[in-house]
Amino acid sequence: MKAPSLATLRRGFDLPAQAAQLGFRCLLEAMARPGRVQLLPPAALAGLESPGIGTGLCALLLTLLDAETRLHVGPGLPRDQLLPYLRFHTGVRVVDAVDDAEFVCCAAEHAHAPLLQALCEGSDEAPQRGATLIVEAPVLAEALPQTRGLILRGPGIRDTQRLGVGGINAEFWRARAALEANFPRGIDLVFCCGDRIAALPRSTRIELEG
Amino acid sequence: MKSFSDMSMTMSSTNTPNSPRPGDHAERADWLRVLAMASGSELARFAAPVLNDFRFEWLRRPEQGLVMVRARIGNTGDRFNLGEATVTRCAVRHHATGDQAVVGVGHVMGLDELHAERVAQVDALLQVPALHTLLQGSMLRELQGCIDERQRSERARTAESRVRFFTLQPEAA
Description:
With 210 residues, chain A is of the alpha/beta class. Chain A has a seven-stranded mixed beta sheet. The longest helix of chain A is centred in the first third of the chain and has 17 residues, at 16-32. Chain A has helices at 16-32, 55-64, 79-90, 113-118, 170-178; strands at residues 38-39, 70-73, 93-94, 103-107, 132-136, 140-141, 150-153, 161-165, 188-193, 196-200, 205-208. Chain B is of the alpha+beta class and 173 residues long. Classes of the chains: A alpha/beta (210), B alpha+beta (173). Chains A and B meet through helix 3 of A and strand 2 and strand 4 of B.
């Protein structure tokens, strides 16, 4: 692949430290309250020129990645633009093997069960090595009309919590539910849609509506 | 301080500023070398007045980090780690006339953020054809002169204490 010119590279955070802290805080909040949709504050997106992906996904990637992390970019995202951008701004190592990556991102319509099953879910001794899958969804809401949503239970949820993610098929959710038996091994899921994010940590039990 | 793991630096005692590199990389590497080797105050004198007339935006704000400097034993032998050096780097973007964007990068040894910023800004302007010749003549040549002058005086200073070992007679056994 020809190295793209720096001149076409888009801008990252205006104030990297501050924006990344706000983004991380927002992600912590989302992880602590599974299924609750969080809004990334404008200051966490200030100055961003996102390379063909949603601003929320872009902000999360800039927040989470650094030279120590390994990223796999799944199908449905503009690799040619995204990879040089992330390499420049974060120094992240991009890997081709899905099971080698700590972070994986893909578009919702390409989030299929085989992708989820291929991810590294850590070991019982080191469950923290389980991968995080970040999905860019066309729609994300706590209650979606005309879409089979999810009913969530588990730590961080009082009784139940509902979440609707557009573009993801039922097979994916069944594969995700099957992973629950492996806890503390597992995959943490984060969904982005514009500047809104929601998380589904591995400790959350899911059930398909209807 | 974080380590710039995406950068590496190899020292070589054969200083060949005009070593062949593909395309126009050689020329750019050359001016970046001059800008990085000039002192912060020299850049302030020659570059700052020019740079005030242009607008830049950050692509990467100045960040300070460590780079492992490697060298080769006797310049040809095995590679070894000489030590870590502090490096400050940044990247700026400038929109020249006609909506053409140029990106300048600045990497300097040490912790002088303003120096790195000015290197990046001058690098960006040097890539604009309309400004290149002007800057080449007025700025780069002056800076190269300053560097040469500094190196000359340093050589003269070290030459005073030079010892020519081969002129010493071995003691009679």
